[in-house]
Amino acid sequence: MDLRAPAILLSARSHGETAVIVRLFTQQYGMIAAYVAGGRGRVLRPVVIPGNLVEAQLRARSDSQLPFAKLELLESRGPWLSEPLPAAAIQWVTALTASALAERNAYPGLFSALQGVLAAICQAPSARGWARGLLVYEALLLRELGYGGMRPEAETLADIVTGMEKLEAPIAQYLLTDRQGQTMAARAQLLDRLRRIL
Fold first, then answer.
1. What residues make up the domain containing 41?
2. How many angstroms separate the CA atoms of 51 and 79, rounded?
3. Which of 59, 75, 178, 191 could make an S-S bridge to 53, C-beta 3.0–4.6 Å?
4. Are 56 and 69 in contact (CB under 8 A)?
């Protein structure tokens, strides 16, 4: 493997003293786990934030080996992580995608949708500008992975929260079967924060 592509960073987990294992979502190659040397260091720490758009260079000697990645920041979500509601939304949507997708299966439609949702979260003046997009993304993820899913017609924030509540069981049952813990906790936190602004 030797490839270079823009990618959405979905998750980063510490490995050893200074490295991280990241999950990157690319349009052409799908989700790829990779090793980033020095990922916890001062230079790369702001780059390995879930939700960031990066230019990833991935190399591996064989398809069975965990690739090594070099990352270059293209667009940061860091400034929005200090805001409770956008931070909860970014955490949920990246954790859901990282947990639900199989590695190295391309989902170009999901990649574009996730990129759009993250951009909306960071650019809309309030949750009313991005919450419907997040609901539509959840339904799209269910459909793309073969689990049906409703076509949300929600307009108000209250309708959107109700729609997200309806999708909770299918998401937990089909997409997060054996890894519900922290991922569903991120969703519960997001829903709690959305309910507070109704």
1. 2-75
2. 11
3. 75
4. yes
Span 106-115, pLDDT tens digits: 999 999 999 9
Whether 115 and 169 share a structural domain = yes
Claim to verify: residue 94 and residue 68 sit in the same structural domain: no
Share of the chain above pLDDT 90, in %: 86
Q: Give Cα 135 distance to the centre of its chain.
A: 14
64 with 116, same domain: the answer is: no
16-27 pLDDT per residue, tens: 889 999 999 999
The rounded distance, in Å, linking the Cα atoms of 86 and 35 is 27
Binned at pLDDT 50, 70 and 90, residue 149 comes out as: low
Domain boundary among 60, 75, 90: 75
Q: Do residues 53 and 98 both lie within one domain?
A: no
Q: How far apart are CA 58 and CA 27, in angstroms?
A: 14
b/e sequence 130-158, b meaning 16+ C-beta within 10 Å: bbbbbbbbbbbbbeebeeebeebebeebe
CA 80, 85, 86, 87: dihedral to nearest 10 degrees?
A: 70
Q: Evaluate if residue 177 carries a pLDDT over 80.
A: no
| Total number of domains constituting the chain | 2
Q: Would you state the structure tokens that stand for residue 37, as one six-digit string? A: 């040397």
